[in-house]
Amino acid sequence: MQIRALTVFVSSLEYDRISNYVEKIKKIDNIWTKRISLPETNLSISKVMELIPQDNSVLFSVCGMRDNDNRIMEILDALRSGSNIFCNILVNDIKNLDKITKILTKLEPEEATRLALLINDDFLLTPYFPASTANVVADSFGLALLYVKDFIENNISSAFQQANEFGLKVSRKIGAKFLGIDVSLSPWMNESVGEIIEKQSGKIFSLGNTWTVGEINKLIFSEAWRSKVTPIGFSETMLPIAEDNILKKRVEEGSLTLSQLVQLTFACAAGIDMVGIKEDPLLYKNLIKDLIAIQFTKKRPYAIRIIPSRGEDKINTKDFGIIPTIKVI
């Protein structure tokens, strides 16, 4: 088990407060990424950016905006200000899809990896970026894990318990309340969630995959409660294409298409994530409409990260390597 992210949820926008947590979490060892999530605000993005310390070793989720926000195009400036800046847009209905698709079509691939569309009733308290917003009344924090190997070896409960003990120790060190763990099963390249699904139900995409994703989610929840940890955020199976070598391969060979990926998310995979999709505003709007319908049925948070493809079969990125463009069928 590896601590994938330690994310501090800051309750108010104050430079000294944010800077203090930056210095505190930088001293915590054995963490893959250190992050700070900011609350919803009416400030301009430029004003928010002035409150963030210039430290690229920490990631910042700076703007959780609602889809009807007049400042929404400012998100582009935020994403272009630094590779450690993340944003999300809360989508509640279809009235503002023109603005949302306009933003998506203006993003370069690396920028697109740092913007999420969150379909939910409200902002989400999760360690996972970009869909994180500090929707809290007091400073606090949460953890995200990489535990694919523990899942395969049936050591899930032990991984959760170790992470929980780690969180309690960190709480004493930084003086913030430990809220819990986003127990989502998420991949990183060769530590593949796609491989787990295929071992249980056959090659992606096959009939039975959706059932398997649902069963994995049931197991995650039962192990979380058995381990007496508090699940926060998504706490589901995650299928980010660009972060899972098996999923990448299935998209490249054409056995996993966009419609099939959408079907998998009915079983509570967290959403359409880190997938290259040809740049087409009408396609994006229709896709988002369908995903709003799925979220309404699931009654669970649903996040989207689309990487616009402009004629390429493969999109080159610095942090994620090649991201394949999925077939739209």
Structure commentary:
InterPro entries: UPF0210. This is DUF711 domain-containing protein. It comes from Acidianus brierleyi. The structure is a single chain. This protein is an alpha/beta fold. The chain has one domain: Alpha-Beta Barrel (Anaerobic Ribonucleotide-triphosphate Reductase Large Chain). Helices cover 37% and strands 21% of the residues. The chain is built from twelve helices and twelve strands.
Entry keywords:
single chain, 329 residues, alpha/beta, Anaerobic Ribonucleotide-triphosphate Reductase Large Chain, eight-stranded mixed sheet, two-stranded parallel ribbon, 21% strand
Give the topology.
Layout: E1 2-9, H1 15-26, E2 31-37, H2 45-50, E3 58-66, H3 74-79, E4 85-91, H4 97-106, H5 109-112, E5 115-119, E6 140-146, H6 148-152, H7 156-174, E7 177-182, H8 193-201, H9 209-226, H10 245-253, H11 258-264, E8 275-278, H12 281-298, E9 302-304, E10 306-309, E11 314-317, E12 321-324
Helix pairs in contact: 4-12, 8-9
Mean pLDDT: 96
Radius of gyration: 19 Å
Number of strands: 12
* CATH class call: Alpha Beta
Helix content: 25-40%
Number of helices: 12
Structural class: alpha/beta
Domain unit count: 1
CATH topology: Anaerobic Ribonucleotide-triphosphate Reductase Large Chain
Q: Major sheet: size, sense and barrel closure?
A: 8 strands, mixed
Pfam families: DUF711
Organism: Acidianus brierleyi
Protein name: DUF711 domain-containing protein
